[in-house]
Amino acid sequence: MIRVIVLIKQVPDPKVRARLKEDGTVDRERVRAVMNPYDRNALEEALRLKEVIGAKVIAISMGPLKAESVLREALAMGADEAILLSDPMLAGSDTLATSYALSKVIKMLGNYDLILCGMETTDGNTGQVGPEVAEHLGIPHVTYVEDFELRNGYLLVKRLIEGGYQWLKVRLPALLTITNTANEPRCSTFEGVIRALKKNVRRLSLEETGIEKGRVGLIGSPTRIKEVRRVNLRRRRYIIRKPSAKEAVEELLRELSSKGIKLVMNGG
Amino acid sequence: MVNKSGGVLVYAECKRRKLNRITLELLSAGRYLAGKLNSEVSAVLIGYKVRELAKELICYGADRAYVVDHQSFRYYVPLTYAKVIADLIISSEPEIVLFPADSIGRDLAPRVAAKLNTGLTADCIELDIGDYEDPISGRHYEKLLYQVRPAFSGDIIATIVVPERRPQMATVRPGSFDPLPRDLGREGEIVAIPVNLGGEGGVMEVIKVVEEESSTDLRDAKIIVSGGRGVGGPYGFKLLRELAKELGAKLGASRAAVEAGWISYSHQVGLTGQIVKPKIYIACGISGAIQHIVGIREAGVIIAINRDPDAPIFDYADYGIVGDLFEVIPALISKIKEVKCNK
Ligand SMILES: Cc1cc2nc3c(=O)[nH]c(=O)nc-3n(C[C@H](O)[C@H](O)[C@H](O)COP(=O)(O)OP(=O)(O)OC[C@H]3O[C@@H](n4cnc5c(N)ncnc54)[C@H](O)[C@@H]3O)c2cc1C
Ligand SMILES: Cc1cc2nc3c(=O)[nH]c(=O)nc-3n(C[C@H](O)[C@H](O)[C@H](O)COP(=O)(O)OP(=O)(O)OC[C@H]3O[C@@H](n4cnc5c(N)ncnc54)[C@H](O)[C@@H]3O)c2cc1C
């Protein structure tokens, strides 16, 4: 049976706008923590493999103890095992440190055929952890994967690129990052939740995995956040709801011209 | 062979015998940074039959162009490309390495960063040089690369530095810098790097590419009328085209509309399409996925037409009309015609 590892990160609820604390760091405490939405797509791909060819699915997360909840959810969705790497020393890890730590956990587990990640997270947004984990493990990776097929010892992978797609042949073991357009992730069922209650989330510490302290956390991270500021990508939101399209359009043009915005430019 | 250390290294890309626009933008960024560091700009171009583009790199701002030209590099694959770049970085010791934040750069740069055990900042929109005081060690650093990037889906902008390790590496979003004018008189050095494939070949290969050429340039459009999946089909785009004609606008599209085959890729706006800066952007039947929004961040006024009042696009729009576009757009067209007549 092939072994599929899914990497899952807990993130602040992306539906809630990020806030900053007094000291200028991101306020994570007051926001509900959820599974990174793209990691659901990765997990979904793993669960489909399980259904079709009988894979064993292992979910791994690195984060604070409360990240156990996203692993419980992964178990409820159908993952077979869940592992949480948690240690205060890991706080402040950037993508290099995070990927190093995750790769040590994966090495400790030994055998695996496929590692699936989300294409990025909704908080850090870097999309770097997947390829960096693959480099630490010395295995190939493919990012932005929308579809793949398992063949005899290799994968046939559909990768999204500018203006289209490419198909690649990749030797196993390999790491793929899955796009949000790859599938429609399932919800956990009631039975699934009950089943998950009987399972354990295995907790690992730094010692057990042989992670070097100097290579994780703030000390082990080459990047430093010098400052953060909040910005407004979100705009003014003047929303028009009218019974008829004609009225709506008239209100729009009135509003635009009251602000001196010319829609009809060649009209002068 | 390669011995100049310090300076800025740019990862260059080309398509169909032409340098990509993002490469010209990175060369321009490189010149700006090198000016502040009093150092040089190099570029590295990997591919097959790309040698003749080396001179172009110099015309657009490179002092030195490294070229790796070999059949096995016809298509990008991370393992072999990462090895070439990492070897070049080790031998030439740049202070700064810039990659495009596209489907290649975001794939390659993390692989290289992990190989070299250094930091990498994603999706930078601004770059500068400045000093840094580490709050923990109290140490003072001079002339670091300030890497400014959005995170939390654009709600937050962070400035990131890499004080201790080298090189300082970043991926840079297309549209963040303006290319320099092409200067045929610029002089520079062209260095061919011999190919050493090592043991990385054969692990992965590209077997097929389905890719459409981009020819419509939306970057200088004053108004863009853009359609998404909600446009429903080619007939919907006919309606949009009519509106565009009335407004003297160009036609844009979401990736969903392009993938449906209703309009060609050259009209796609967003992360894997074009980054646009029109005065007015009219989004019709587009839900507002973040990969689309990053392409219109710098639009002057965004107007959204969507029948779903909860569509995320309304959060990013200055004006929104909740309604069916097949009613709203015809109404808009006739109103505009009316306005024009009265002038
Ligand atoms: C505002 C801000 C900006 C930042 N910018 C940078 C930066 O430019 N460069 C940098 O190196 N770090 C940066 N960081 C730190 C970065 O967010 C953390 O390193 C984080 O642990 C992983 O990065 P990510 O969230 O971008 O993950 P991504 O690389 O986007 O994650 C991709 C996939 O990797 C897997 N994964 C990621 N993290 C975990 C985890 N903890 N456990 C299990 N699986 C995981 C998931 O499958 C996920 O979908 C930034 C942090 C903040 C707050
Ligand atoms: C790596 C990657 C890169 C990507 N790059 C891009 C990119 O460059 N550009 C891009 O656009 N996307 C990109 N995407 C895809 C992106 O995530 C979304 O899937 C895409 O933008 C959705 O397109 P849409 O808004 O047209 O479709 P949908 O999300 O399906 O939205 C359709 C909208 O139309 C509305 N609608 C339907 N009928 C009507 C009607 N009659 N009248 C009015 N409104 C109606 C609906 O309410 C809905 O809001 C990328 C994704 C990935 C994974």
Chain-wise SSE layout:
The complex is a heterodimer of chains A (268) and B (343).
Chain A: E1 3-7, E2 10-12, E3 33-35, H1 37-53, E4 56-62, H2 68-77, E5 81-85, H3 95-109, E6 114-118, H4 129-137, E7 141-150, E8 154-161, E9 164-171, E10 174-178, H5 190-197, E11 201-204, H6 206-209, H7 217-220, E12 224-230, E13 238-240, H8 245-258
Parallel strand pairs in A: 1-4, 1-6, 4-5, 5-11, 6-10, 7-10
Antiparallel strand pairs in A: 2-3, 7-8, 8-9
Chain B: E1 8-12, E2 14-15, E3 18-19, H1 21-37, E4 41-47, H2 54-59, E5 64-69, H3 78-92, E6 96-100, H4 105-116, E7 120-124, E8 126-133, E9 140-151, E10 156-161, E11 168-172, E12 189-192, E13 204-211, E14 223-227, H5 234-247, E15 250-253, H6 255-259, E16 280-284, H7 290-293, E17 301-306, H8 313-316, E18 319-322, H9 325-342
Parallel strand pairs in B: 1-4, 1-6, 4-5, 5-12, 6-11, 7-11, 14-15, 14-16, 16-17, 17-18
Antiparallel strand pairs in B: 2-3, 8-9, 9-10
Helix pairs in contact in B: 3-4, 5-9
Bound molecules: flavin-adenine dinucleotide (2 copies).
One flavin-adenine dinucleotide sits between chains B (228-230, 254-257, 268-273, 285-287, 289, 291-292, 295, 305-308, 311, 324-326) and A (119, 144, 160, 179-181).
Q: Provide the residue-averaged pLDDT of chain A.
A: 92
First-residue to last-residue Cα separation of chain A: 70 Å
Separation of the first and last Cα atoms of chain B: 69 Å
Largest sheet entry of chain B = 7 strands, parallel
SSE arrangement of chain B, N to C: EEEHEHEHEHEEEEEEEEHEHEHEHEH
- Output the CATH homologous superfamily of the largest domain in chain B: HUPs
- Named at the architecture level, the CATH assignment of chain A is 3-Layer(aba) Sandwich
The distinct bound ligands, ions and cofactors come out as: flavin-adenine dinucleotide
What's the overall geometry of chain A? globular
Helix percentage range of chain B: 25-40%
What's the mean pLDDT score of chain B? 92
Percent helix of chain A: 25-40%
Task: Supply the helix-strand structural class of chain B.
Answer: alpha/beta
